[in-house]
Amino acid sequence: xTVITPFGPGASASLTVTGTTGNVALxxxxxxxxxxxxxLQLVYIKFGTSAxxxxxxxxxMLPNTVETxxxxxxSAHTHVAAIAxxxxxxxxxxxxxxx
Length: 99
Prior knowledge:
This protein is mainly beta.
């Protein structure tokens, strides 16, 4: 049986998503990152270093959804990038522990 641990929030950051790729540093505090897509459009995201860029070939997040990701806290995963068709979404990113 799989044990589900409730998400325990820590620090947060936000990223305004536009038609041009942008990125933000992942907040510190835990091995999970909860991302809320506050908007009415599909957003594409990618984790990486401070140079990470997102394209429409990357992982898609549906409008007005919440996803929790387990990430490696290595030098290869310090930022998240996002892109969409136009301006209209904001990602709220919260670090923490759990699902």
